[in-house]
């Protein structure tokens, strides 16, 4: 490969309005990308015509027109690999983009380290806000060269195929392709096949992929479309296939794959379980049957919150009466709501479901799923901190403090601490300043214009030097919208609200512009709610 280059494979289906931006970002990578191969999966909206028009203007763009729709993403990606002629392949979805210089940075590292797979940074960009959330932060170390994936089994947590450059000869040698047809979560299986083939992997810290997340889109992406149990069934099936592939190659990778499912996939779907009894029952049966086959070593290796969820799943054949309590526990950060039951002095989930909460005594205070309630008290916020089987009492809670975290990322804003007072029955209380005008001003200084969105957290400091940070459970009239006079903005609209995980969050709309954005935001959510019904 005296002049190595990259083939960028773009897959598209009914995405005429966005595919042009994706293709443009690939062509803009420069001469290091010798060809962009766009595979149209028999679209019905004009996507094919858009691609043909672009190809007429850009010789490096080749269009593959499928004669029938495949029903998934795997087949068109396989078509792209088959059409590729460059030594390296990079994948791109039609509604995402490659940042400038991504292909060159990946190729430079791949050739320097003779790596069959090269990994770069990826962000999930929430649109239209434009907030970037790093994908799998801390999983990779820039500059690493990983000789054997089995030496780093935690790599199974990164199931994306789009933030990586692949040597095409490596894919061909090991017959690595995506599952064909309507196979949802095809990335899981492809990534498992790649790791099972033991490639040499190089890691760079350059941003190489921008994954666009459009939650208000009329047609949600597969990963966001979790309205029925079919999506979960597809995810379980893909995970089962991936785990079987890894087990044949490496027990360490298979073990890590099961732990990842418990700590990530299971909790993500559980916290969005909803209140439909039919869905809950189907989800519970499917999940319980699948987890029943997991190695006990994988369950024991999982974090306490995931391990306790498995204990509850195994303890009852149907969703427990307090299943909503379980969804709150699966949230991030986790909260275990009272009451706190014990059997013979041993902490259990509940009297009805006496699943043992093993390892609770050894959890650091920072990891305790403590519940903190919040309700208005004039201009203050009254918080109630609940003990957890005596663990918090051992640490000696002393002070509480509000912390406001910008939902799009950035530096938090801390409130003033106040002393916690014992209130009996394992509860401590404090009244904390809830000053919203200074918070809005801090958001403005940080460059947030228009409507601001904040997660509200409570920090608890203890006498033994330990501390914890957790979410707040809104109570009473806290969620009432209020208009506050402001010398700076004239009026400040404040809308406390409950997140999908049941936690307190806050929208602030400073001035007329912010108020207009708040109204637009509410109207948009209302329209989406009508469509979803």
UniProtKB/TrEMBL annotation:
InterPro entries linked to this entry: Glyco_trans_2-like, Nucleotide-diphossugar_trans
Glycosyltransferase 2-like domain location: 7-134
Protein name: Glycosyltransferase
The species this protein was found in: Streptomyces antimicrobicus
Lineage: Bacteria, Bacillati, Actinomycetota, Actinomycetes, Kitasatosporales
